[in-house]
Amino acid sequence: MPKVIHVTGDDVSTDAIYPGRYMATVLPTETPQYAFANDADFNARLKAKEFPAGSVLVGGNNFGCGSSREQAASCLKGYDLTIVAKGIARIFLQNAINLGLKVVTVPDVEASVGDELELEGDRLVNRTTGKSFAVVPLPKARQAIIDAGGLIAYTRKRMVEAPAR
Amino acid sequence: MGKTVVEKILARAAGLPAVSAGDVVEPRVDVAMSHENAALVINQFLEIYEGTGREAKPWDPSKIAIVFDHRIPAESPKTATNQKRIRAFVEKHGIGRFHDIRGDVGGICHQILPEYGYVRPGQVVVGTDSHTTSHGAVGAFAFGIGATEMASVWALGAAVNVEVPRTIKVVVNGEFPPFVGPKDLILHLVGKLTAQGGNFRVLEFHGETIRRMSTSGRLAVCNMSVEAGATSGIVPADAETLRYLREEAGVTDPLEPVVPDPDAVYERVVEVDVSRLEPQVACPHTVDNVHPISEVAGVRVHQVVVGSCTNGRLDDLEAAAEVLRGKKVAPGTRMLVFPASGKIYQEAMAKGYVAEFMRAGAVVMNAGCGPCLGVHEGALGDGEVAVSTTNRNFKGRMGNPESEVYLCSPAVAAASAVAGVLADPRKGR
Ligand code: SF4
């Protein structure tokens, strides 16, 4: 069952997730090394592959606010983390869906590092505390992109179906 | 039922008779803007075409704009190589709206687009930059997207699966007191709405204060709408919009302003009276941590920054130069000035502002993003404090998580440079 590996406060910006000084690095294969680079300890633990795929980062309100830099989503996708946050800023949410990073909005979530979380339909259950919380559905407009496996695959399919220019 | 301005713009762009908040639409895109992150857009764009047997060609190069601003001149071989790749792509596909590192036509993307008349009322504008909200200042629906989404726009010519946002109507009335202006208004509003108060929503601006406001001021207000989390800020086009586009941007072709219906349905209405507003300051480390100057004056300042897409225009430089006139930047404080474009730089020279800055001890650097995003120049030392006319003060924004950034107007920034501490420009006059 997926475990919580990190809990943040509110308003974690994309500057915190992927600092501006690394923005010349763009390829999704290269961005993970700089995830949360200003937090040396967490960054080192990510790079050491301490956390299995599916591990959960719990964010507060307005997670991913600020810059549209897509590296903030691709660097977390590189570790296959799941983001559970009380609120997620629009562009980050959109980038995450486009890249296939799993994001879940849970306004009342209560979880600590080490807790085991599980999605059950439209609820998130904290198996450690026994509490469960309502999940806000993703914007309906985005479901087709998730179903296609990300925006690149979705656009490729749309383009191939369209008459050639 | 009446429609908001964004509902009307999206209906038109999607070829539908009408749309309402919550509908999912695919608006065709009129302007697709990127900066140095076009390097990633190109990468994703080519990936879309992989294995399709089709030639990777953007849908309409005349609708793409690419402006180098974030790291100019390049600070590293990596950036320089990204810029080189982008130039080759621009050349190959005949992208005409390309603004390279130049003193004449270069500048910050959010200044270049209005300055050259690329954005018009009623358009749908997307940009791989969160402050694309700026372009709502000329009555366009403009919003930030990621690089992969831009690659999809380059391929399809439309933004796919856009949910029509709800709109908050912001009505601003009253006359600004001396040394209080658009930046103070938007800082105050972000404080009031909070950093996530506008998430997934549009801010539509109305009221006599907005009507009287110049396009430069409207650009600052729409620019920072994203700091309340908003998808976009928009001032429905009016007489000032047409004046700006005709007289300043040199637009000669027909313009079709789109305005909201009088009975448009808003999620809520927020009213602001600016007649008693003090100069406002956003304190570290969130943009909605806003206080009047009287509560925070006196904080020791090491670096003052005047510039950016928020406040790097001619009237901003004028306000700062006025405060500096006959004074000096305090010892122990350094002041950096970044005009928002080459054109503004030249105008500021002609008006004597550049000479005034240099005489006072400020350093005037090339047009561009400068130290705003903490990557290129003007980094802060551990424990240092910056007072800046930019739009973000997140921890580490100016390159050092051990520093602090306060956001304010050009007048407050200049007064603080003279005093060496956060200072009220209304004092000592
Ligand atoms: S000036 Fe700052 S906020 Fe504006 S586009 Fe450049 S980096 Fe972004």
SSE topology sketch:
The complex is a heterodimer of chains A (165) and B (429).
Chain A: E1 4-7, H1 14-17, H2 40-47, E2 56-59, H3 71-77, E3 82-85, H4 90-99, E4 102-105, E5 117-120, E6 123-126, E7 132-134, H5 143-148, H6 151-161
Parallel strand pairs in A: 1-2, 2-3, 3-4
Antiparallel strand pairs in A: 5-6, 6-7
Helix pairs in contact in A: 3-4
Chain B: H1 5-14, E1 24-25, E2 31-34, H2 38-49, E3 64-67, H3 77-93, E4 97-99, H4 109-115, E5 124-127, E6 141-144, H5 147-156, E7 162-163, E8 166-173, H6 182-193, E9 201-206, H7 208-212, H8 215-223, E10 232-234, H9 239-248, E11 268-273, E12 280-282, E13 290-292, H10 293-296, E14 303-307, H11 308-311, H12 314-324, E15 334-338, H13 342-350, H14 353-360, E16 363-364, E17 385-388, E18 404-407, H15 410-419
Parallel strand pairs in B: 2-3, 2-5, 3-4, 5-6, 8-9, 8-11, 9-10, 14-15, 14-17, 15-16, 17-18
Antiparallel strand pairs in B: 1-7, 12-13
Helix pairs in contact in B: 2-5, 6-8, 12-14, 12-15
The complex binds iron/sulfur cluster.
In short:
With 165 residues, chain A is an alpha/beta fold. Chain A has six helices and seven strands. In chain A, the strands form two sheets. Chain A has a four-stranded parallel sheet, covered by helices on one side. A three-stranded antiparallel sheet of chain A has the order 5-6-7, with no helix packed on it.
